[in-house]
Design brief:
The protein is of the alpha/beta class. The chain has 4 domains: about 180 residues, no CATH class; about 70 residues, no CATH class; about 150 residues, no CATH class; about 180 residues, no CATH class. It starts with a helix and ends with a strand. The radius of gyration is 35 Å and the shape is globular. Strand 7 and strand 8 form a beta hairpin. The protein contains 8 helices and 52 strands. The strands form 16 sheets. Strands 9, 10, 11, 21, 23, 24, 25, 26, 27, 29, 47, 49 and 51 form a 13-stranded mixed β-sheet that branches. A 5-stranded antiparallel β-sheet has the order 3-4-7-8-52. Strands 13-15-16-19-18 form a 5-stranded mixed β-sheet, with no helix packed on it.
Length: about 850
């Protein structure tokens, strides 16, 4: 039997164990609690990181959507201040290599154009060639002031606070399967796809990087990358084009564009255009633009005269071709050429002709277009032949596979009826206003063995029925889609269109009243709606005839694709109200220009840092199908300077232009000063002896007619730089009204002495504003007016005097702008993995 003392001792030992167990339990529970706290904090951190991740990605996606809008409507983005400025600080200079090893320097989009605007192709300056590491356009925060300012502005527009931001936007070439990425040891040469190699799957690749911030610290970064491809649009190249015959009983008159026929052609409005030396080359008016003449023996020279070494010396020493020589001391030249070594080959070096009273010559860089008396194209100051001349229609020319006649009299304008270019401008004795060198016939093949072809084969641009039918149907016939498909009822007097509504075809064609506006209109063949091309069974609908009606509210707008036996009108009566439409832009020579090193204000040389004669002049913009200039001061406009002629100018046909009778563009020269133009009223002109224009391709300035004279000829030449009466409006302000041109009117709103891509506004009343294509032909009466292009697969037959005024910007992509259609589509969209 246990005693009380023993029991008490046992109870005390048990109490000590309980305390230990309790302590252990408490420690365990504490550790478990701490674990739960740690897990909770980790989960919270994960949630914060996920939030930061998603916010950064959302910001990047928002930036990507804005980039899409740049391509969809650059002008809209510009007006809303979310379009990057077209300045070199945001662009990479591309060194584009072709298959022959030639290198062309360029930037994406020419100065003065909107970045990412149409066109998306045609020329190198409109395409992207870079890759992700050498993008054509790169906008990086803190890379430079322009990029930082733009991104700060864009972020302020997109985001309510400053906790997220877009930090980098890169735009470069789309996927280029099979293309060659140029990689060289010279970094500036690398990273651009070789021009003309491989395929091009789209318009551009866009990569947008966004960041999430905590205070001033970046806590998350995300990228979004997408590939954009162009929404397909039909192309237009001429005022009238047909695969049939263009010979009718009427007088179809064409203004401002090309006439093309795969058969015989009758030009019912014979008008003298720009002189053509051959089927490819218009008059080479760069000679006289910035030229030198060959040194001549026994000639009195005065200070300021500029010549080049005798051609016989250049033939011996080709390096002399890189120099011209300015007279710094007057005198009479020797009676015979000096030794070739007489002419210095270092800029700034002088040489005095050794005979008594001989002139002093100082070496300077050559002028771009030295005259060569052995080559007809380079023999004369051809520019002077154009100055002060009134050309009936500088843009008109006709090309046919068959014979060409004109004016209903069956006569070839000049030359033999069998000659492909019967009126070629082949003699300096000819007048530029008296020869129809803009007519070409028998153009059945291309003279590919010469740079001066008399034939360039004529092809009619047939539309692909299946493709364009699918494009039209892709719009689901919803108003506002701008893509409309129409199915004929019966043989085609009426068509079923959007909303299942049936209307007569002439009602659907009236974009002013049909509730659809400008768009792509596809009118199908008769049931069962098959392809009518190449014997695939489709049957054309009955003729579409538009009858003259009263009122002023009828007009086709956009691109109309018909599958009718023929289209025609019975005149237009009072169907159309008067309005203003643009004449074409000024003729130019697509031969490039010498680039300038803006840090030295001298010609840029290749290789960089080299000197003449070892180095060569660097050129840009050659053969890219657009007028180019170098925006030296990056103000977005071409800055020009004109001066009054101070010498008698010898015209090639033996005449002269007296001193003070003409104003001339002053080309860029080394160390000259370019004015900064916007509005003429605030302009302070540089001193005449140092003033010049920005480097540019040669163009001829046009003095456009008054608004109410659309059919008038145009005068070639520049004018007093302060004479605003010679300017004509380019900006429409209302129906049949335009801006008044004064000295405070921005240069882009009126024509000027600078290059005008769009001509003056003139009054017309056209029943078409756009392009009309028909699988059938044309057969109508009356005097309908068209502004744009009329393309017929079949024959043209017309009585009366219908008129077609070509809308030149159709060839530059303005149809997309008029239709207001979606310009690009996203074909690939990637986020960080």
């Amino acid at each position: 039997m246990k005693t009380r003392k023993q029991n008490k001792r046992k109870s005390a030992g048990q109490e000590g164990s309980a305390l230990l167990v309790s302590l252990m339990v408490m420690v365990g529970l504490s550790l478990l609690g701490l674990g739960f706290v740690a897990i909770s904090e980790t989960e919270s951190a994960i949630a914060v990181n996920e939030r930061n991740y998603l916010q950064a990605q959302a910001a990047a996606e928002a930036g990507a959507k804005i980039a899409i809008e740049w391509f969809q409507d650059a002008e809209w983005a510009y007006l809303h201040k979310i379009l990057p400025p077209n300045v070199n600080a945001l662009k990479t200079q591309r060194r584009l290599h072709d298959d022959d090893g030639n290198v062309t320097l360029s930037y994406y989009k020419a100065p003065g154009e909107l970045l990412f605007d149409v066109p998306f192709k045609i020329t190198a300056s409109n395409r992207f060639y870079g890759n992700e590491n050498t993008p054509d356009v790169v906008i990086t925060l803190n890379a430079n002031a322009t990029a930082t300012t733009f991104l700060n502005t864009l972020n302020a527009e997109l985001f309510a606070d400053n906790t997220v931001r877009i930090s980098d936007i890169r735009v470069y070439a789309p996927p280029m399967p099979g293309a060659t990425l140029v990689e060289t040891t010279t970094m500036e040469d690398s990273g651009f796809w070789q021009e003309g190699s491989g395929g091009r799957y789209g318009v551009a690749t866009v990569r947008v990087t966004a960041q999430k911030l905590a205070g001033n610290r970046v806590v998350a970064t995300r990228n979004v990358k997408m590939v954009l491809t162009e929404t397909p649009f039909p192309t237009v190249d001429g005022a009238i084009e047909t695969s049939g015959s263009l010979v009718g009983q009427g007088n179809f008159h064409v203004y401002w564009g090309k006439i093309l026929s795969e058969q015989e052609t009758q030009v019912n409005r014979p008008a003298v255009g720009m002189p053509w030396f051959d089927a490819k080359t218009q008059m080479t008016f760069e000679y006289g633009y910035d030229s030198t003449v060959e040194w001549k023996a026994s000639t009195a020279y005065v200070a300021g005269d500029v010549i080049h070494a005798p051609n016989s010396d250049i033939a011996i020493d080709g390096e002399l071709e890189k120099f011209s020589y300015i007279c710094t001391g007057p005198g009479t030249s020797a009676g015979a050429p000096h030794a070739t070594a007489f002419w210095p080959k270092a800029v700034g070096t002088s040489a005095v002709e050794p005979q008594a009273g001989g002139p002093t010559w100082k070496a300077q860089p050559s002028r771009p277009y030295p005259l060569d008396p052995t080559e007809f194209y380079e023999k004369f100051h051809w520019l002077y032949a154009l100055l002060d001349q009134t050309i009936q229609d500088p843009w008109l020319h006709a090309r046919a596979r068959g014979a060409l006649t004109y004016d209903n009299n069956g006569k070839v304008p000049c030359g033999a009826a069998t000659e492909p270019h019967p009126c070629d401008f082949a003699s300096e004795a000819e007048s530029v206003t008296g020869r129809y060198s803009n007519f070409f016939q028998h153009q059945t093949f291309t003279d590919s063995t010469t740079d001066e072809p008399e034939r360039i084969e004529v092809f009619f641009p047939t539309m692909d029925y299946e493709f364009w039918k699918a494009v039209a149907q892709s719009g689901d016939n919803q108003p506002g889609s701008d893509l409309y498909y129409f199915r004929p009822v019966g043989t085609g007097a009426s068509f079923v269109g959007p909303g299942g509504v049936t209307k007569p075809v002439e009602d659907w064609l009236n974009a002013r009243q049909n509730g659809l506006g400008a768009g792509f209109y596809f009118f199908d063949t008769q049931s069962p709606y098959k392809n009518p091309q190449y014997g695939k069974g489709g049957k054309l609908t009955e003729a579409v005839k538009v009858n003259a009606q009263d009122g002023k509210d009828w007009q086709m707008q956009g691109y109309v694709y018909l599958n009718a036996e023929f289209f025609g009108t019975s005149g237009q009566g009072n169907m159309i109200e008067d309005d203003v439409y643009s004449m074409p832009g000024e003729p130019y020579r697509d031969i490039g220009y010498r680039e300038v090193d803006t840090t030295t204000n001298k010609y840029a040389l290749e290789p960089s840092g080299g000197v003449l004669p070892a180095a060569s002049f660097r050129t840009a913009g050659r053969s890219n199908k657009q007028w180019d200039f170098q925006d030296i001061n990056e103000n977005g406009v071409f800055d020009w300077y004109v001066a009054k002629n101070t010498k008698a100018l010898a015209v090639p046909n033996g005449g002269t232009i007296d001193a003070d009778d003409a104003w001339l563009i002053v080309p860029w020269f080394e160390n000259c000063t370019v004015p900064t133009l916007d509005k003429m009223d605030a302009q302070v002109w540089p001193a005449p002896n140092v003033a010049c224009s920005e480097p540019h391709e040669p163009y001829v300035n046009i003095l456009y007619p008054a608004q109410n004279s659309p059919k008038a000829g145009v005068k070639i030449g520049w004018h007093d730089r302060l004479d605003e009466t010679k300017r004509r409006p380019k900006l429409k302000t209302g129906t049949n009204t335009a801006v008044a041109c004064a000295d405070d009117t921005p240069l882009r709103d009126c024509t000027s002495n600078g290059y005008d891509e769009d001509g003056a506004l003139v009054t017309l009343s056209p029943l078409l504003w756009g392009a009309l294509y028909n699988e059938g032909g044309y057969n109508g009466t009356g005097n309908a007016v068209y502004y744009g292009a009329v393309l017929m697969r079949g024959n043209f037959n017309a009585s009366g005097t219908p008129e077609v005024f070509f809308n030149e910007c159709l060839a530059r992509g303005c149809l997309e702008s008029q239709l207001d259609m979606q310009r690009v589509m996203v074909t690939s969209f990637e986020t960080d993995q």
